[in-house]
Design brief:
343 residues, alpha/beta, five-stranded parallel β-sheet, two-stranded antiparallel sheet, globular
Length: 343
């Protein structure tokens, strides 16, 4: 599951609240997957440096949605975020807020495909793009249609409420401009580091086998990055497998067999037995994943790698995970862990 960064002007907070509500309740983007600096619960944590937090969350983002308004172009931080997205070649979805139109697009946005926030068709495309890029299931279409209609009905009043009346005062602008220049220099340095790392990885891939490369990359990644990478690999391997097979794999991680209950459950299991994805135990009252099948083998391998890493993760991992998962335990043998990360 990816992370979504909402780039916006603080001046537009009233509209941003409605957009975030549409993304959560209409599209189905999980609350914990959204970073939005002006909204409580989605923003910078107490005690954290503002600029560092913005940079870190932008670095971690899978996708960036930018609300391009009159106030956006007047914000040094927004321009900085926009530059960061451009430097890192992030998955970028700009959304145009009236009264701006395509002729008003400037900087790196000029010539890009931009969605209009007041267009039903554009909002539908935005929804589809987010579901795909963040790798989420998304809510059903009737619910989306209802939420989109409510959003568009309220939009004129929201746009009126955020109508920009002019640039920021000169002293404030100069302060923001100074911060922006410092931020831009920081991203320039990051871009050079990224180029160097790309060259390093290229050399590694030429000299080593894929497993060795993967170990080296993990060694130089944070525990959170390694965890997300392992989770992504396991979830991707489980995705094409039918529910009974995933259930059997879950029980395998618990060092147990899957014992289906009821005629309907056994009917589904028999189908997967016929396809060679499951195999019966000796008593023929339970099943386990058939690792001889290539798809099942990929899932088994990915889950084993995740299980092994979770046995002895780096010292900072548990503190990070408890904060991210609202106190839950990173235990692959628990149903809650699978519901949160894998299925």
């Amino acid at each position: 599951m990816g992370k979504l960064f909402i780039s916006h002007a603080v001046h537009d907070k009233a509209l941003v609240e409605s957009v975030v509500d549409l993304l959560e309740s209409g599209v189905g983007v999980p609350h914990r997957s959204i970073f939005c600096s002006s909204l409580k619960g989605l923003s910078i944590k107490p005690g954290k440096d503002f600029v560092d937090s913005i940079r870190e969350n932008l670095d971690e983002a899978t996708c960036v949605v930018a609300l391009i308004s009159e106030a956006y172009y007047a914000s040094a931080f927004c321009m900085c975020e926009l530059g960061g997205v451009w430097l890192q070649s992030k998955s970028f979805l700009p959304v145009l807020v009236p009264p701006l139109d395509f002729s008003g697009l400037k900087a790196v946005l000029s010539g890009l495909q931009v969605s209009k926030i007041a267009s039903e068709e554009d909002l539908d495309e935005l929804r589809d793009e987010l579901v795909e890029r963040l790798d989420i299931e998304g809510h059903a279409t009737p619910r989306w249609n209802s939420k989109r209609k409510a959003f568009l009905d309220e939009l004129p009043a929201k746009v009126k409420a955020i109508r920009f009346k002019g640039p920021v005062p000169r002293p404030a602008f100069e302060k923001l401009e100074k911060e922006f220049n410092a931020y831009r220099e920081e991203y320039g340095a990051r871009e050079r580091e990224i180029d160097q790392l790309k060259m390093l990885f290229g050399d590694l891939k030429k000299a080593k086998d894929p497993k060795s490369v993967a170990k080296i990359v993990q060694k130089h990644s944070s525990s959170a990055q390694v965890f997300e990478s392992l989770i992504g690999a396991a979830a991707a391997a489980l995705k094409p497998l039918p529910e009974p097979v995933c259930e059997a794999l879950y029980y395998r991680e618990r060092r147990d067999e899957y014992f289906p209950e009821g005629r309907e459950a056994w009917a589904d299991v028999r189908t997967q037995l016929e396809y060679g994805l499951l195999e019966l135990n000796s008593n023929e009252n339970g099943v386990s994943p058939r690792a001889a099948n290539p798809k099942v083998k990929r899932a088994v391998t990915a889950l084993d790698e995740l299980f092994k890493w979770l046995e002895e993760p780096p010292e900072d991992f548990h503190e990070w995970y408890e904060e991210e998962a609202d106190g839950d335990t990173p235990d692959i043998t628990l149903r809650a862990f699978w519901d949160r990360h894998l299925v």
